Structure prediction request, 419 residues.
Amino acid sequence: MKSAVVGYISFCWQCIRISFRGTRLYFLWMTLLSVIALLGLNAYCKQFVHGLVTTGMTDQVSWGMYIANFTFLVGLAAAAVMLVIPVYVYRNMDLHDVVIFGELFAVAAIIMCIMFVTADLGRPDRFHHLLLRINFPMSMLTWDVFALNGYLLLNLHICGYLLYTAYRGRKPTKLFYIPFVFIAIFWAVSIHTVTAFLYVGLGSRPMWNSAIIGPRFLASAFAAGPAFIILTLQIVRRFTTHEVKDEALFTLRRIIQVAMIINIFLLVCELFTEFYTDSAHLASIEYLFFGLGDHKALVPWIWTAMAMNMTSVILLMLPVSQSIRFLNVACVLAIFGIWIEKGMGLIIPAFVPTPLGEIVEYAPTWNETLVCFGIWAFGILFYTMSVRVAVPILSGELTYKLVKARNGGEAVASAAAGQ
Prediction:
């Protein structure tokens, strides 16, 4: 028992040590992210002191960039599933060695989700009201809190256990992680479904009162998530010794192809239903795509997103996407297109016009934007450090035996020097 505790403490200490070691480029990247994160923290401190008046949100538009980023990141958190399913369900070994990077990114994405929700709370000290007994089980917010934190714990366990066993030079016991992997698959779907239900269940916002919102969330998540993973895996391959095969990237490409087509098809179905039937929330959709009178703030955003998504689908369907360069272009377009569609294109127009018919447009303030950049920088910083730790452990460059041997050699050298 004592040996196990000592071994785990050694593992944690070595993880901390190696995360602060690297090349000059690594330190430059970490410094840049740290500066942006600190600027975001300073902006949040101003918001904490003065309240949400420092943001562009109003009584009419009470959700803005924070919830838009939260919605998008919940989808990215499901990216891990797109690596786990082929490996553990269909036995695709091309992705076996990189599945841990998807799990680590899921952890980083959920941490950012929680930070964005905290930033959106006008009184974060009253967060416990979400968990009060009177709110459960009727409150979807309470369900979302449980779903997000449960998914975070699942991925922390899977990542931590696999890395620790690799560090100790042991084969992982399937009983200790395989059941949690399959639970995480269903949980990943649930976090996005529950998030969709948050919007669908708000009767006063007709734009969200559609059963198709949930499937659209999942389709866009299963496109943007793997697209982000493709880009990060190439960075891992470029700047570390870890081998990432092209077959792994093209497996994810096939997933993105299907998910993007489904996402666009569902969007077309939604637009046909609203414009053809002249439904209750046509005003919000019309404001989003064409504007209402002189109010056209979101029109450039949504048409840019549509152009990005369509270009991405065309590239993915053509043989040119078998080239890594064009695949990267398609992934970048998909990520930004879906971010706009699920963020500015979904959250903001549901508040315009209001149930009373008022048209109040929303624009994020500089302070609000800094908070968003700061949270993203912190999440990417956490993910970078996690990958920096994972790569040498998975490649066998950092193991308990090597650390023990090195420490023993240093002790002998120190004793010899003392004599």
Summary: The chain has one domain: 2-404.
